[in-house]
């Protein structure tokens, strides 16, 4: 059975989440007796269970543990699967001297003292004292009168993240919180390593799932249910062989994981270097050579979702640099287009239809990040804007609006080029709607506040359900008809725009950021002639569809790979 695993490692490890599933398969085979061969000379597990019972009886007689309630025999129909010769099914209560949990009362924390361990401090491998809390020696003594973890015992997360069994591997005294269960094991048998293997296996996680209590937010294992968990017990000698083989195969998984991480990192660096050679090309000849290098290895480079996303982002950057479609010398140059936009805005101001806008700063040489194509001009986003403003911040209901009721857009309504009107909150009936904040067709929306990765996303509203208003976290730009709003959306999503927003965004934390309306209007953009804007948008739409098709084929190939790996797993377990 081990040969079946090792002979098919590339298939198993290369499947989606392959190494994680491979680890699970190793443990599943281990607890089924399919990882190492049985030896008929081994003392059967029944003798081991007798010795455990004898040790427990002695400890009861010495007053060291309490006598357990009589345990019912495990019915054949309750046994999860058939065991090899010499194995026995036993409950956790049969194997453990004591099953308890930490204190149910929150102690008084102090700056230093005895470590106080909760689920965040155990990871299935070891106990960490790095970020734990501390309690006094007096509280520690009181808690450990009932729950005294010692080397070789097993800790089990029973509230929140279930399972994650961890062997106590330290002599440092510590106390436990209620979220951690304690399984004290017989000291005269070397049971801890194999028991930990079982508690970590898919077999046990299926049992955790069957007995867990609580709602969708906080699962828990009731202390009274843990003793009923069923454990397949092999002869002690076979336990040692199983653990040795598990250690060997898990070390192999570690190496595969490291190799895969190194390969993925190298692949990502190679893809990015070749893509960067396109955007950094000095002239047409340099660009052609870079594209030739890329195209020759296209099918080996773009084999992951992240590499396809990087390709899509590079195509977007090339588009707004004038390197995706050819220039047409008969197009009206952007300089004339910008003059006409300025004249249009001046007329609207004179007619009192819009307010005079704050003068935008001239584009500096430092802001001109690349050489412009023929007929292009540097400008700021605000020069294409007729008027701008943000929404409001009413206290809305958490649910979306119903029917044609008024609603207020959430910031998630502005996605990467996709308008999501269903992302809204209902306006309470007690509040009056503000129609001046209603979203209209043609609006250019930019998220003013979001995470560092998502702030300043933008979308063009091509059509919209009525009676949806802007929140104060979304800026609305109403653009001149003399520009292509979808081209400006491409510019706002391109790499150099994302770098600009990362530089100017403010915020009180490293994750949540915000940009002002003035910062959005000040975004430097490269403006092509209007006909070229239309051609760029059409070409990007075409190439994005091809990228999406490439990603879909990748997904299909992964599904086939996963099906083959699953079939192999089923063969191994059957």
What do you see in this structure?
The protein is α+β, with helices and mostly antiparallel strands and 574 residues long. Among the domains are: 57-233, DNA methylase specificity domains (Adenine-n6-DNA-methyltransferase TaqI, Chain A, domain 2, Alpha-Beta Complex); 332-528, Adenine-n6-DNA-methyltransferase TaqI, Chain A, domain 2, CATH 3.90.220. The chain has 17 helices and 20 strands. It has helices spanning 2-7, 9-14, 18-31, 45-61, 92-95, 137-144, 192-199, 202-211, 236-279, 284-296, 298-301, 305-320, 334-350, 485-493, 495-504, 517-521, 530-573; strands spanning 88-91, 98-101, 114-117, 133-135, 154-157, 163-167, 175-176, 180-184, 230-233, 377-380, 385-390, 407-409, 424-426, 444-447, 449-451, 458-460, 468-469, 474-479, 512-514, 524-527. The strands form 7 sheets. It has a 4-stranded antiparallel beta sheet, with helices on one face.
Low-confidence stretches are none
CATH architectural label of one domain: Alpha-Beta Complex
Query: Count the strands?
Result: 20
CATH superfamily of one domain: DNA methylase specificity domains
How would you write the strand order of the largest sheet?
Answer: 2-8-5-6
User: How many helices in DSSP terms?
Assistant: 17
Rounded average pLDDT: 88
CATH topology of one domain: Adenine-n6-DNA-methyltransferase TaqI, Chain A, domain 2
| Rg calculated over all Cα atoms | 33 Å
List keywords for this structure.
Adenine-n6-DNA-methyltransferase TaqI, Chain A, domain 2; alpha+beta; 4-stranded antiparallel sheet; about 575 residues
């Amino acid at each position: 059975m081990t040969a079946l695993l090792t002979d098919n490692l590339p298939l198993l490890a290369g499947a989606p989440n392959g190494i994680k599933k491979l680890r699970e398969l190793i443990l599943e085979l281990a607890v089924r007796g399919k990882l190492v061969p049985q030896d008929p000379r081994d003392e059967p597990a029944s003798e081991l269970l007798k010795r455990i019972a004898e040790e427990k009886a002695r400890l009861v007689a010495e007053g060291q543990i309490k006598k357990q309630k009589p345990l019912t025999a495990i019915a054949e129909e309750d046994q999860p699967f058939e065991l090899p010769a010499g194995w026995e099914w036993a409950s956790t209560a049969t194997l453990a001297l004591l099953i308890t949990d930490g204190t149910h009362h929150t102690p008084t924390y102090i700056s230093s003292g005895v470590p106080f361990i909760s689920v965040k401090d155990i990871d299935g491998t070891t106990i960490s004292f790095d970020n734990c809390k501390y309690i006094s020696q007096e509280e520690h003594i009181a808690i450990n009168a009932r729950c005294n973890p010692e080397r070789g015992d097993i800790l089990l997360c029973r509230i929140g993240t279930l399972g994650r069994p961890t062997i106590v591997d330290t002599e440092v005294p510590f106390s436990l919180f209620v979220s951690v269960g304690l399984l004290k094991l017989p000291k005269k048998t070397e049971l801890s390593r194999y028991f930990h293997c079982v508690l970590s296996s898919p077999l046990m996680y299926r049992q955790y799932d069957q007995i867990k209590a609580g709602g969708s937010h906080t699962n828990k294992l009731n202390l009274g249910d843990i003793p009923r968990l069923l454990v397949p017990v092999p002869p002690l000698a076979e336990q040692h062989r199983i653990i040795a083989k598990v250690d060997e195969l898990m070390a192999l998984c570690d190496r595969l994981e490291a190799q895969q991480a190194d390969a993925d990192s190298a692949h990502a660096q190679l893809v990015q270097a070749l893509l960067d050679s396109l955007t950094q090309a000095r002239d047409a000849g340099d660009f052609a050579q870079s594209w030739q290098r890329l195209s020759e290895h296209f099918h080996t480079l773009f084999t992951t979702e992240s590499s396809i996303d990087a390709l899509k982002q590079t195509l977007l950057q090339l588009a707004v640099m004038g390197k995706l479609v050819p220039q047409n010398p008969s197009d009206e140059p952007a300089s004339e287009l910008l003059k006409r936009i300025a004249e249009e805005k001046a007329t609207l101001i004179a007619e009192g239809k819009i307010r005079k806008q704050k003068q935008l700063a001239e584009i500096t040489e430092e802001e001109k990040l690349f050489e412009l194509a023929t007929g292009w001009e540097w400008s700021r986003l605000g020069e294409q804007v007729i008027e701008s403003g943000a929404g409001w911040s009413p206290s809305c209901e958490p649910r979306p609006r119903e029917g044609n009721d008024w609603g207020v857009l959430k910031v998630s309504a502005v996605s990467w080029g996709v308008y999501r009107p269903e992302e809204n909150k209902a306006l309470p009936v007690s509040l009056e709607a503000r129609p001046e904040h209603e979203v209209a067709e043609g609006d250019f929306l930019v998220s003013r506040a979001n995470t560092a990765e998502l702030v300043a996303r933008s979308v063009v509203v091509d059509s919209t359900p009525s009676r949806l208003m802007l929140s104060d976290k979304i800026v609305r730009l109403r653009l001149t008809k003399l520009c292509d709003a979808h081209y400006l959306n491409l510019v706002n999503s391109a790499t150099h725009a994302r770098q600009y927003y990362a530089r100017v965004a403010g915020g009180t934390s490293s994750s949540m950021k915000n940009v002002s309306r003035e910062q959005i209007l000040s975004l430097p953009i490269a403006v092509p002639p209007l006909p070229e804007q239309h051609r760029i948008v059409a070409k990007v739409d075409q190439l994005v569809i091809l990228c999406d098709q490439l990603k879909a084929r990748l997904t299909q190939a992964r599904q086939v790979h996963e099906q083959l790996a699953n079939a192999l797993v089923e063969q191994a377990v059957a």
